[in-house]
Every structure is written in structure tokens, then in C-alpha cells.
Specification:
Helix content: 10-25%
Number of helices: 3
Structural class: alpha+beta
Largest sheet: 4 strands, antiparallel
Order of helices and strands: HEEEHEEEEEEEEHEEEE
Strand order of the largest sheet: 1-2-6-5
Number of strands: 15
């Protein structure tokens, strides 16, 4: 009788242990769906499109913690800067300090391409740009297009694209571009915040970051002017 009772207690204990384990397994919290959305721009100081800006420090705020990757290769500023801006990410903010002397009555564009990502999942905010003017008006025209490699017609990624209002054929060899951007992974580009006028447009590898063509660099050009 005692052996039988002991055996039943052991079975009951084992059953209880299984039940407790099952309950613990069933009660395990789920992590929820994976975040697949890029960060959303919320505000900036100075505001997007601000006029008469007289400061060289900008703060951009997003709806979640962000990081900025490949700053040297992806982020470009128009007008072209001799000194690379200081760009950092802290929490939900991206801080930009322009280190060149600010030009009067000029529209500035900071083109981030796909450099801004959310911190946790790495979702890219593609095609984001911020603009302001140091004068009483802001230029708003733009040119979009694609660049392909002539050898295989594949998209040319990371090419510097720029324009000249000086229509001389020699401008590209001596003068820095007036407005610049870079192609994305699909070879696509958008030159933003242009003044009214007529332009020649080029694309370069620009290995030495002088914003004009040197003979060692690959070059592409559109054979008609754009007005």
C-alpha cells in the first residue's frame, strides 16, 4: 500500500511539473512584428525651407532613434563645401555643423541620400534632403534622372552629379559644380533647389573630392543643355 501510494505521489509530482512547464511555455510573451518602416522626419531647427538663416548649426529630429552611416561617401551639401560638415547622430536627432563660411542670398541643400537609418533595425530613409536659404527667398527647381555605366548599362551607384550655369566646355575642368548630389544604388539622382536658368549636367567619380573633372576620373554628360 505504501509503495503504491508513493508511486502515485511521484506520478502526481511529475504531472504537476509537466503542467507548470506547459503553463510557462504558453505564457511566453511575443516580441511583436518586426519594424520595417524607416524613420520619419518630425521637425528641424531652423525649420525646413527657412529664410534668412544666419547660423551654421542645424538639428533634424525624427520619430525614433537614428544613426547616420557612410557620411563621407553619401552626404553632400550644395553649394559644394571645401570642409566636410561635422554630422553626428544623438538619440532622435541628427546634428549638422557647416564649417565653410556661409554665402549670402544662397539656397543650401543637405542631401542625405540613404545615409539615415533607424538605430535598431537599420531601415533606411531614402532620398531625404534638407534645405534653407541665407536670403529672403529659396530656390525650388530640380532635375532628376539616372546614370548608367556605358560598358554594361548597369546603374552607376555613388556618382557625383552636378550642374554648371557656365556653359563653357572647359568649366568642368576648372570650376567646382554649382549644385551637387549623388546617385543611389539604382543610379537615380535628384538635383534640388536650383535657380531658374540654363545648365549643363555631368556625373563624375570625383575620387579627390574637388567637385570638378580630372582626367583620371570617369565622366558622363548630357549632350544638350537643360533649361
Amino acid at each position: 500500500m505504501r509503495q503504491s501510494l508513493l508511486y502515485m505521489r511521484m506520478l502526481l509530482a511529475m504531472a504537476a511539473a509537466v503542467a507548470v512547464g506547459a503553463c510557462a511555455s504558453m505564457g511566453r510573451p511575443e516580441g511583436g512584428p518586426r519594424d520595417t518602416e524607416p524613420p520619419v522626419f518630425v521637425k528641424s531647427n531652423p525649420p525646413q525651407g527657412a529664410l534668412n538663416v544666419d547660423r551654421n548649426k542645424i538639428t533634424l529630429t525624427f520619430d525614433e532613434n537614428v544613426t547616420v552611416n557612410d557620411i563621407m561617401t553619401k552626404v553632400v551639401v550644395s553649394p559644394a563645401q571645401r570642409n566636410m560638415p561635422n554630422i553626428t547622430a544623438t538619440g532622435r536627432n541628427v546634428n549638422v555643423e557647416l564649417r565653410d563660411t556661409m554665402l549670402p542670398n544662397t539656397t543650401y541643400t543637405i542631401d542625405f541620400s540613404d545615409a539615415i537609418k533607424d538605430l535598431n533595425e537599420g531601415n533606411e530613409l531614402d532620398g531625404f534632403a534638407y534645405a534653407f536659404s541665407t536670403g529672403p527667398q529659396i530656390d525650388t527647381l530640380q532635375i532628376s534622372g539616372m546614370v548608367f555605366q556605358a560598358s554594361n548599362l548597369e546603374p552607376a551607384q555613388g556618382m557625383l552629379v552636378g550642374v554648371y550655369s557656365n556653359l563653357s566646355d572647359t568649366a568642368i575642368t576648372t570650376l567646382p559644380f554649382e549644385r551637387i548630389t549623388k546617385t543611389n544604388q539604382l543610379g537615380q539622382f535628384t538635383l534640388r533647389n536650383l535657380k531658374e536658368g540654363t545648365y549643363r549636367i555631368y556625373a563624375l567619380t570625383d575620387n579627390n573630392r574637388d567637385y570638378h573633372w580630372d582626367r583620371s576620373e570617369d565622366v558622363a554628360f548630357y549632350d544638350v543643355t537643360i533649361t
